[in-house]
Sequence to fold (91 residues):
Amino acid sequence: MLSDEIGIDITLVQTEVSVGKFNVDILAEEENTGRKIVIENQLESTDHDHLGKIITYASGFDAEIIVWIVKVYETSISKQWTGLMNIQTQT
Fold:
């Protein structure tokens, strides 16, 4: 189902995998490329706490794809995420 929504074939690696003192909900791989995917399910609105955790998960597993499932995506988080992506592409 998620694969259909995002257009990426996903293979589950493990659930609740530790990165330091945090656990990523789902660690997966893209089927054809083996690229790592971190998937975070958040039942509430986006927040800074989860943004930091997602960055930790992605860097801890060298993930190239991040999927953040939320009820409400807050505008302030969107601006911060865009800023981080701009920093990444400039380095």
Observations:
- The radius of gyration is 13 Å.
- Helices lie at 2-6, 48-60, 75-90.
- Residues 55 and 66 are 9 Å apart (CA to CA).
- The domain at 2-90 is CATH 3.40.1350.10 (Trna Endonuclease; Chain: A, domain 1).
